[in-house]
Amino acid sequence: MRARIALLSYVAAILVGTTVHDIRLLALGLGVVLALAGRGWIRIVRRASLAVLMFNAVVTASYVVIAGLGGTFSPAYVALVNLRVLFLTCLSFLFVERVNVFEAISFSPNLTSLFTLSYSQAATFRQVLANFRMAFKSRCIESVRLRDRYRHSASVGAHLLEKSLHNATEITRVMRSRGFFND
Amino acid sequence: MIEVEHISYRYPEGEPVLRNISFAVGEKEKVVLLGANGSGKTTLLQILDGLIFPKSGTYRYRGDPVSERQLRDKSWSRRFRKEVVLLFQNPDAMLFNPTVYDEIAYGLRQLRVNDLDARVRDYAARLAVERYLERPPFQLSGGEKQKVCLASLLALEPDLLLLDEPTANLDARSAGWLIDFLGDLPVATLATTHNPSLAAELGNRALVLSEEHELIFDGEMNRLMRDREKLLAANLVHVHQHRHGAMEHRHVHGHEWG
Protein backbone atom coordinates (compact mmCIF):
# COMPACT_ATOMS: atom_id res chain seq x y z
CA MET A 1 0.00 0.00 0.00
CA ARG A 2 2.84 2.36 0.87
CA ALA A 3 4.35 1.76 -2.55
CA ARG A 4 1.08 2.72 -4.26
CA ILE A 5 0.75 5.88 -2.18
CA ALA A 6 4.33 6.74 -3.12
CA LEU A 7 3.47 6.15 -6.80
CA LEU A 8 0.43 8.44 -6.58
CA SER A 9 2.51 11.12 -4.83
CA TYR A 10 5.19 10.77 -7.50
CA VAL A 11 2.69 11.16 -10.35
CA ALA A 12 1.13 14.17 -8.61
CA ALA A 13 4.57 15.76 -8.09
CA ILE A 14 5.42 15.19 -11.77
CA LEU A 15 2.18 16.89 -12.82
CA VAL A 16 2.82 19.84 -10.51
CA GLY A 17 6.47 20.03 -11.60
CA THR A 18 5.52 20.25 -15.27
CA THR A 19 2.73 22.83 -14.82
CA VAL A 20 4.27 25.23 -12.30
CA HIS A 21 6.13 28.13 -13.94
CA ASP A 22 7.36 29.85 -10.79
CA ILE A 23 11.08 29.27 -10.41
CA ARG A 24 10.88 29.72 -6.62
CA LEU A 25 8.32 26.92 -6.29
CA LEU A 26 10.48 24.60 -8.44
CA ALA A 27 13.51 25.44 -6.32
CA LEU A 28 11.47 24.68 -3.22
CA GLY A 29 10.36 21.36 -4.75
CA LEU A 30 13.98 20.46 -5.52
CA GLY A 31 14.90 21.36 -1.95
CA VAL A 32 12.19 19.05 -0.60
CA VAL A 33 13.34 16.17 -2.86
CA LEU A 34 16.93 16.59 -1.72
CA ALA A 35 15.86 16.80 1.91
CA LEU A 36 13.95 13.53 1.48
CA ALA A 37 17.08 11.98 -0.09
CA GLY A 38 18.90 12.62 3.21
CA ARG A 39 22.60 11.82 3.13
CA GLY A 40 22.32 10.50 -0.43
CA TRP A 41 21.41 13.95 -1.85
CA ILE A 42 24.87 14.57 -3.34
CA ARG A 43 24.78 11.25 -5.21
CA ILE A 44 21.29 11.98 -6.57
CA VAL A 45 22.21 15.49 -7.73
CA ARG A 46 25.38 14.14 -9.36
CA ARG A 47 23.57 11.32 -11.19
CA ALA A 48 20.72 13.62 -12.26
CA SER A 49 23.10 16.33 -13.47
CA LEU A 50 25.08 13.83 -15.55
CA ALA A 51 21.89 12.32 -16.96
CA VAL A 52 20.45 15.63 -18.14
CA LEU A 53 23.69 17.40 -19.04
CA MET A 54 23.62 16.70 -22.78
CA PHE A 55 19.86 17.28 -23.17
CA ASN A 56 19.91 20.52 -21.21
CA ALA A 57 23.01 21.77 -22.99
CA VAL A 58 21.46 21.24 -26.44
CA VAL A 59 18.10 22.77 -25.46
CA THR A 60 19.73 25.73 -23.75
CA ALA A 61 22.18 26.39 -26.58
CA SER A 62 19.41 26.19 -29.18
CA TYR A 63 17.24 28.58 -27.18
CA VAL A 64 20.09 31.03 -26.65
CA VAL A 65 20.82 31.13 -30.39
CA ILE A 66 17.22 31.39 -31.61
CA ALA A 67 15.96 33.75 -28.88
CA GLY A 68 19.16 35.79 -29.12
CA LEU A 69 18.68 36.28 -32.87
CA GLY A 70 15.01 37.21 -32.32
CA GLY A 71 15.84 39.58 -29.46
CA THR A 72 13.62 37.69 -26.98
CA PHE A 73 16.29 36.07 -24.83
CA SER A 74 15.31 35.63 -21.18
CA PRO A 75 17.80 34.30 -18.60
CA ALA A 76 14.86 33.53 -16.27
CA TYR A 77 13.42 31.17 -18.88
CA VAL A 78 16.76 29.32 -19.22
CA ALA A 79 16.92 28.92 -15.44
CA LEU A 80 13.28 27.73 -15.31
CA VAL A 81 13.75 25.04 -17.99
CA ASN A 82 16.99 23.72 -16.50
CA LEU A 83 15.64 23.73 -12.95
CA ARG A 84 12.46 21.93 -14.02
CA VAL A 85 14.41 19.16 -15.76
CA LEU A 86 16.76 18.79 -12.79
CA PHE A 87 13.86 18.68 -10.33
CA LEU A 88 11.95 16.03 -12.33
CA THR A 89 15.06 13.91 -12.79
CA CYS A 90 16.08 14.08 -9.11
CA LEU A 91 12.50 13.23 -8.14
CA SER A 92 12.48 10.21 -10.49
CA PHE A 93 15.85 8.94 -9.24
CA LEU A 94 14.69 9.27 -5.63
CA PHE A 95 11.43 7.44 -6.43
CA VAL A 96 13.18 4.55 -8.17
CA GLU A 97 15.74 4.31 -5.37
CA ARG A 98 13.24 4.32 -2.49
CA VAL A 99 10.14 2.63 -3.86
CA ASN A 100 9.59 -0.93 -5.02
CA VAL A 101 8.11 -0.08 -8.42
CA PHE A 102 7.00 -3.69 -9.04
CA GLU A 103 4.87 -3.51 -5.89
CA ALA A 104 3.58 -0.03 -6.75
CA ILE A 105 2.23 -1.10 -10.14
CA SER A 106 1.13 -4.60 -9.15
CA PHE A 107 -2.54 -3.53 -9.58
CA SER A 108 -2.08 -3.81 -13.37
CA PRO A 109 -0.73 -7.08 -14.85
CA ASN A 110 -0.11 -5.46 -18.24
CA LEU A 111 1.75 -2.51 -16.73
CA THR A 112 3.79 -4.93 -14.60
CA SER A 113 4.69 -6.98 -17.70
CA LEU A 114 5.75 -3.89 -19.62
CA PHE A 115 7.76 -2.58 -16.69
CA THR A 116 9.44 -5.96 -16.16
CA LEU A 117 10.42 -6.04 -19.84
CA SER A 118 11.80 -2.50 -19.71
CA TYR A 119 13.63 -3.21 -16.47
CA SER A 120 15.23 -6.40 -17.79
CA GLN A 121 16.28 -4.63 -20.97
CA ALA A 122 17.80 -1.75 -19.01
CA ALA A 123 19.70 -4.22 -16.80
CA THR A 124 20.98 -6.10 -19.86
CA PHE A 125 22.08 -2.90 -21.56
CA ARG A 126 23.78 -1.69 -18.40
CA GLN A 127 25.76 -4.93 -18.28
CA VAL A 128 26.68 -4.66 -21.97
CA LEU A 129 27.80 -1.06 -21.50
CA ALA A 130 29.93 -1.99 -18.47
CA ASN A 131 31.56 -4.80 -20.48
CA PHE A 132 32.34 -2.52 -23.43
CA ARG A 133 33.85 0.09 -21.11
CA MET A 134 36.02 -2.49 -19.38
CA ALA A 135 37.20 -3.97 -22.69
CA PHE A 136 38.14 -0.48 -23.88
CA LYS A 137 39.98 0.29 -20.64
CA SER A 138 41.76 -3.04 -20.87
CA ARG A 139 43.05 -2.24 -24.38
CA CYS A 140 44.24 1.28 -23.58
CA ILE A 141 47.93 1.15 -22.79
CA GLU A 142 48.30 4.93 -22.68
CA SER A 143 45.92 7.83 -22.04
CA VAL A 144 42.99 7.57 -24.41
CA ARG A 145 42.92 9.96 -27.36
CA LEU A 146 39.69 11.84 -28.07
CA ARG A 147 39.47 10.22 -31.52
CA ASP A 148 39.58 6.73 -30.00
CA ARG A 149 36.97 7.70 -27.43
CA TYR A 150 34.65 8.86 -30.23
CA ARG A 151 35.27 5.68 -32.22
CA HIS A 152 34.55 3.57 -29.19
CA SER A 153 31.36 5.50 -28.38
CA ALA A 154 30.19 5.10 -31.98
CA SER A 155 30.89 1.38 -31.85
CA VAL A 156 28.99 1.03 -28.55
CA GLY A 157 26.08 3.05 -29.94
CA ALA A 158 25.89 0.92 -33.09
CA HIS A 159 26.05 -2.30 -31.09
CA LEU A 160 23.35 -1.17 -28.65
CA LEU A 161 21.10 -0.02 -31.49
CA GLU A 162 21.47 -3.35 -33.27
CA LYS A 163 20.92 -5.25 -30.04
CA SER A 164 17.83 -3.23 -29.13
CA LEU A 165 16.32 -3.79 -32.59
CA HIS A 166 17.03 -7.51 -32.35
CA ASN A 167 15.65 -7.67 -28.80
CA ALA A 168 12.54 -5.69 -29.74
CA THR A 169 11.77 -8.13 -32.58
CA GLU A 170 12.39 -11.14 -30.39
CA ILE A 171 10.40 -9.82 -27.43
CA THR A 172 7.46 -8.96 -29.68
CA ARG A 173 7.49 -12.55 -31.02
CA VAL A 174 7.72 -13.97 -27.50
CA MET A 175 4.87 -11.79 -26.26
CA ARG A 176 2.73 -12.75 -29.26
CA SER A 177 3.58 -16.41 -28.69
CA ARG A 178 2.58 -16.12 -25.04
CA GLY A 179 -0.74 -14.45 -25.86
CA PHE A 180 0.06 -10.89 -24.76
CA PHE A 181 -1.42 -9.42 -27.93
CA ASN A 182 -4.95 -10.34 -28.91
CA ASP A 183 -4.57 -9.96 -32.66
CA MET B 1 54.11 -14.05 -11.97
CA ILE B 2 50.77 -13.34 -10.27
CA GLU B 3 49.82 -13.95 -6.66
CA VAL B 4 46.30 -13.66 -5.35
CA GLU B 5 45.87 -13.73 -1.58
CA HIS B 6 42.52 -13.98 0.21
CA ILE B 7 40.65 -11.77 -2.23
CA SER B 8 36.93 -11.24 -1.94
CA TYR B 9 34.61 -9.22 -4.12
CA ARG B 10 31.00 -8.14 -4.10
CA TYR B 11 29.18 -5.84 -6.50
CA PRO B 12 27.39 -2.83 -5.04
CA GLU B 13 23.91 -3.88 -3.88
CA GLY B 14 24.81 -7.53 -4.41
CA GLU B 15 25.85 -10.80 -2.82
CA PRO B 16 29.55 -11.76 -2.71
CA VAL B 17 30.81 -13.13 -6.03
CA LEU B 18 34.27 -14.16 -4.79
CA ARG B 19 35.14 -15.33 -1.29
CA ASN B 20 38.65 -15.62 0.10
CA ILE B 21 40.40 -16.69 -3.12
CA SER B 22 44.14 -17.46 -3.05
CA PHE B 23 46.37 -18.89 -5.78
CA ALA B 24 49.46 -18.07 -7.82
CA VAL B 25 50.33 -18.48 -11.50
CA GLY B 26 53.92 -18.90 -12.70
CA GLU B 27 55.59 -17.85 -15.95
CA LYS B 28 54.30 -19.73 -19.04
CA GLU B 29 51.93 -21.84 -16.94
CA LYS B 30 48.70 -23.05 -18.60
CA VAL B 31 45.91 -22.75 -16.05
CA VAL B 32 42.20 -23.36 -16.47
CA LEU B 33 39.63 -21.74 -14.22
CA LEU B 34 36.52 -23.88 -14.02
CA GLY B 35 33.20 -23.00 -12.47
CA ALA B 36 29.49 -23.14 -13.15
CA ASN B 37 27.78 -20.08 -14.64
CA GLY B 38 27.63 -17.32 -12.03
CA SER B 39 30.46 -18.73 -9.92
CA GLY B 40 32.60 -15.58 -10.37
CA LYS B 41 35.02 -16.60 -13.15
CA THR B 42 34.58 -13.43 -15.21
CA THR B 43 34.82 -11.21 -12.14
CA LEU B 44 38.09 -12.90 -11.17
CA LEU B 45 39.52 -12.32 -14.66
CA GLN B 46 38.51 -8.67 -14.51
CA ILE B 47 40.34 -8.34 -11.19
CA LEU B 48 43.43 -10.02 -12.66
CA ASP B 49 43.33 -7.53 -15.55
CA GLY B 50 43.18 -4.57 -13.14
CA LEU B 51 39.74 -3.47 -14.28
CA ILE B 52 38.03 -3.86 -10.92
CA PHE B 53 39.62 -4.20 -7.51
CA PRO B 54 38.97 -6.67 -4.70
CA LYS B 55 37.18 -5.43 -1.59
CA SER B 56 39.65 -7.33 0.56
CA GLY B 57 42.84 -9.31 0.05
CA THR B 58 45.75 -8.53 -2.27
CA TYR B 59 46.65 -9.18 -5.89
CA ARG B 60 50.30 -8.85 -6.93
CA TYR B 61 51.79 -8.84 -10.41
CA ARG B 62 55.52 -9.58 -10.42
CA GLY B 63 55.69 -8.50 -6.80
CA ASP B 64 53.80 -5.19 -7.18
CA PRO B 65 50.31 -4.78 -5.78
CA VAL B 66 47.73 -4.21 -8.53
CA SER B 67 45.56 -1.40 -7.20
CA GLU B 68 43.88 1.78 -8.45
CA ARG B 69 46.77 3.73 -6.99
CA GLN B 70 49.39 1.57 -8.69
CA LEU B 71 47.60 1.87 -12.04
CA ARG B 72 47.72 5.66 -11.76
CA ASP B 73 51.49 5.32 -12.18
CA LYS B 74 51.64 5.73 -15.97
CA SER B 75 54.83 3.80 -16.65
CA TRP B 76 53.70 0.89 -14.45
CA SER B 77 50.23 0.90 -15.99
CA ARG B 78 51.73 0.94 -19.49
CA ARG B 79 53.88 -2.10 -18.68
CA PHE B 80 50.98 -3.92 -17.02
CA ARG B 81 48.53 -3.29 -19.88
CA LYS B 82 51.11 -4.50 -22.38
CA GLU B 83 52.06 -7.63 -20.42
CA VAL B 84 48.64 -8.71 -19.09
CA VAL B 85 45.81 -8.87 -21.61
CA LEU B 86 42.23 -10.10 -21.45
CA LEU B 87 40.16 -11.67 -24.20
CA PHE B 88 36.55 -10.84 -23.33
CA GLN B 89 33.83 -13.42 -23.88
CA ASN B 90 31.94 -11.09 -26.21
CA PRO B 91 34.34 -10.01 -28.99
CA ASP B 92 32.06 -7.11 -29.95
CA ALA B 93 33.03 -5.45 -26.67
CA MET B 94 36.65 -5.25 -27.83
CA LEU B 95 36.26 -4.06 -31.42
CA PHE B 96 35.83 -0.38 -32.24
CA ASN B 97 38.34 0.48 -34.97
CA PRO B 98 37.35 1.12 -38.62
CA THR B 99 39.33 -1.82 -40.07
CA VAL B 100 40.82 -5.09 -38.87
CA TYR B 101 44.27 -3.61 -39.62
CA ASP B 102 43.61 -0.66 -37.29
CA GLU B 103 42.19 -3.02 -34.69
CA ILE B 104 45.39 -5.09 -34.56
CA ALA B 105 47.54 -1.95 -34.76
CA TYR B 106 45.65 -0.17 -31.97
CA GLY B 107 47.85 -1.28 -29.05
CA LEU B 108 51.04 -1.25 -31.15
CA ARG B 109 50.51 2.42 -32.07
CA GLN B 110 50.28 3.26 -28.37
CA LEU B 111 53.56 1.41 -27.80
CA ARG B 112 55.09 3.22 -30.81
CA VAL B 113 56.72 0.05 -32.12
CA ASN B 114 59.03 0.44 -35.11
CA ASP B 115 57.90 -2.62 -37.07
CA LEU B 116 54.16 -1.91 -36.73
CA ASP B 117 53.13 -2.90 -40.25
CA ALA B 118 55.16 -6.11 -40.24
CA ARG B 119 53.85 -7.08 -36.84
CA VAL B 120 50.20 -6.43 -37.78
CA ARG B 121 50.55 -8.57 -40.92
CA ASP B 122 52.44 -11.28 -39.06
CA TYR B 123 49.78 -11.67 -36.34
CA ALA B 124 46.96 -11.38 -38.89
CA ALA B 125 48.58 -14.26 -40.80
CA ARG B 126 49.08 -16.35 -37.65
CA LEU B 127 45.42 -15.95 -36.74
CA ALA B 128 44.33 -16.48 -40.36
CA VAL B 129 42.61 -13.09 -40.67
CA GLU B 130 44.99 -11.40 -43.14
CA ARG B 131 42.38 -11.41 -45.91
CA TYR B 132 40.10 -9.28 -43.72
CA LEU B 133 42.68 -6.57 -42.94
CA GLU B 134 40.86 -3.83 -44.89
CA ARG B 135 37.38 -4.83 -43.72
CA PRO B 136 35.48 -3.35 -40.77
CA PRO B 137 35.60 -5.86 -37.87
CA PHE B 138 31.85 -5.65 -37.23
CA GLN B 139 31.18 -7.28 -40.63
CA LEU B 140 32.94 -10.50 -39.60
CA SER B 141 31.43 -13.64 -38.08
CA GLY B 142 31.70 -14.37 -34.34
CA GLY B 143 34.66 -16.72 -34.81
CA GLU B 144 36.51 -14.28 -37.08
CA LYS B 145 35.93 -11.44 -34.60
CA GLN B 146 37.35 -13.66 -31.87
CA LYS B 147 40.48 -14.22 -33.97
CA VAL B 148 40.86 -10.49 -34.64
CA CYS B 149 40.60 -9.80 -30.90
CA LEU B 150 43.21 -12.45 -30.20
CA ALA B 151 45.53 -11.06 -32.92
CA SER B 152 45.13 -7.56 -31.41
CA LEU B 153 46.14 -8.85 -27.99
CA LEU B 154 48.94 -11.20 -29.09
CA ALA B 155 50.51 -8.48 -31.28
CA LEU B 156 51.46 -6.78 -28.01
CA GLU B 157 53.48 -9.91 -27.16
CA PRO B 158 52.04 -10.20 -23.65
CA ASP B 159 53.32 -12.43 -20.85
CA LEU B 160 49.93 -13.38 -19.43
CA LEU B 161 46.88 -14.04 -21.58
CA LEU B 162 43.55 -14.13 -19.74
CA LEU B 163 40.73 -15.76 -21.73
CA ASP B 164 37.07 -15.62 -20.78
CA GLU B 165 35.28 -18.68 -22.20
CA PRO B 166 37.44 -18.49 -25.35
CA THR B 167 35.49 -21.08 -27.32
CA ALA B 168 32.02 -19.76 -26.45
CA ASN B 169 31.47 -18.13 -29.86
CA LEU B 170 33.24 -20.73 -31.95
CA ASP B 171 32.06 -23.67 -34.01
CA ALA B 172 33.68 -27.07 -33.43
CA ARG B 173 36.42 -26.65 -36.06
CA SER B 174 37.41 -23.17 -34.88
CA ALA B 175 37.35 -24.31 -31.24
CA GLY B 176 39.73 -27.16 -32.07
CA TRP B 177 42.00 -24.79 -33.96
CA LEU B 178 42.04 -22.31 -31.05
CA ILE B 179 42.88 -25.01 -28.51
CA ASP B 180 45.89 -26.09 -30.57
CA PHE B 181 46.94 -22.48 -31.11
CA LEU B 182 46.77 -21.62 -27.40
CA GLY B 183 48.64 -24.79 -26.47
CA ASP B 184 51.59 -23.73 -28.62
CA LEU B 185 51.74 -20.14 -27.32
CA PRO B 186 54.88 -19.45 -25.27
CA VAL B 187 53.02 -17.31 -22.70
CA ALA B 188 51.16 -17.99 -19.46
CA THR B 189 47.44 -18.45 -20.04
CA LEU B 190 44.50 -18.49 -17.65
CA ALA B 191 41.34 -19.56 -19.44
CA THR B 192 37.87 -19.90 -17.95
CA THR B 193 35.34 -22.53 -18.90
CA HIS B 194 32.37 -24.35 -17.43
CA ASN B 195 32.98 -27.31 -19.70
CA PRO B 196 35.27 -29.97 -18.12
CA SER B 197 35.78 -31.83 -21.40
CA LEU B 198 37.26 -28.65 -22.85
CA ALA B 199 39.25 -27.81 -19.71
CA ALA B 200 41.60 -30.74 -20.13
CA GLU B 201 42.54 -29.34 -23.55
CA LEU B 202 43.19 -25.81 -22.33
CA GLY B 203 45.73 -26.48 -19.59
CA ASN B 204 47.32 -28.92 -17.21
CA ARG B 205 46.46 -27.16 -13.97
CA ALA B 206 42.91 -26.55 -12.78
CA LEU B 207 41.35 -24.02 -10.44
CA VAL B 208 37.72 -24.66 -9.54
CA LEU B 209 35.27 -22.07 -8.24
CA SER B 210 32.25 -23.43 -6.41
CA GLU B 211 28.73 -22.04 -6.68
CA GLU B 212 29.42 -20.55 -3.24
CA HIS B 213 32.22 -18.52 -4.94
CA GLU B 214 35.07 -20.25 -3.14
CA LEU B 215 38.13 -21.88 -4.64
CA ILE B 216 37.58 -25.58 -3.95
CA PHE B 217 40.34 -27.08 -6.07
CA ASP B 218 43.83 -26.04 -7.16
CA GLY B 219 45.91 -28.82 -8.68
CA GLU B 220 46.63 -31.05 -11.62
CA MET B 221 43.94 -31.32 -14.26
CA ASN B 222 44.19 -35.12 -14.34
CA ARG B 223 43.53 -35.31 -10.60
CA LEU B 224 40.44 -33.10 -10.96
CA MET B 225 39.09 -35.17 -13.84
CA ARG B 226 39.24 -38.27 -11.62
CA ASP B 227 37.56 -36.47 -8.68
CA ARG B 228 33.91 -37.09 -9.51
CA GLU B 229 32.66 -35.72 -6.18
CA LYS B 230 34.46 -32.41 -6.71
CA LEU B 231 33.11 -32.07 -10.24
CA LEU B 232 29.58 -32.78 -9.07
CA ALA B 233 29.95 -30.38 -6.12
CA ALA B 234 31.04 -27.59 -8.46
CA ASN B 235 28.14 -28.35 -10.85
CA LEU B 236 30.61 -29.10 -13.64
CA VAL B 237 29.11 -32.50 -14.40
CA HIS B 238 25.63 -33.88 -13.91
CA VAL B 239 23.90 -37.21 -13.50
CA HIS B 240 20.89 -37.90 -15.66
CA GLN B 241 18.76 -40.69 -16.99
CA HIS B 242 19.46 -42.20 -20.42
CA ARG B 243 17.09 -44.18 -22.56
CA HIS B 244 18.44 -46.49 -25.26
CA GLY B 245 15.32 -48.15 -26.61
CA ALA B 246 13.91 -50.19 -23.74
CA MET B 247 17.05 -49.83 -21.62
CA GLU B 248 17.41 -47.04 -19.07
CA HIS B 249 20.45 -46.10 -17.03
CA ARG B 250 21.99 -43.17 -15.15
CA HIS B 251 25.54 -41.92 -15.18
CA VAL B 252 27.72 -38.83 -14.85
CA HIS B 253 28.00 -36.48 -17.82
CA GLY B 254 30.46 -33.74 -18.53
CA HIS B 255 29.22 -32.73 -21.95
CA GLU B 256 27.47 -29.48 -22.81
CA TRP B 257 23.71 -29.34 -22.70
CA GLY B 258 22.16 -27.74 -25.74
Key traits:
A: 183 residues; mainly alpha; 7 helices; globular; B: 258 residues; alpha/beta; Rossmann fold; 35% helix
Question: What features would you describe in this structure?
Answer:
The complex is a heterodimer of chains A (183) and B (258). With 183 residues, chain A is an all-alpha fold. Chain A folds into two domains: 2-103, no CATH class; 108-177. Helix content of chain A is 84%, strand content 0%. Chain A is built from seven helices and no strands. Chain A has helices spanning 2-19, 23-37, 41-70, 75-98, 101-104, 109-139, 146-177. In chain A, helix 3 packs antiparallel against helix 4 (75-98). Chain B has a six-stranded mixed β-sheet with strand order 6-7-8-3-9-10, with helices on both faces. A four-stranded antiparallel β-sheet of chain B has the order 2-1-4-5, with helices on one face. In chain B, strands 11-12 form a two-stranded antiparallel sheet. Chain B has 258 residues and is of the alpha/beta class. Chain B starts with a strand and ends in a 5-residue tail after the last strand. Chain B is 35% helix and 28% strand. Chain B has a single domain (2-253), classed as P-loop containing nucleotide triphosphate hydrolases (Rossmann fold), CATH 3.40.50. Chain B is globular. The mean pLDDT of chain B is 90. Chain B has ten helices and twelve strands. The chains are: A mainly alpha (183), B alpha/beta (258).
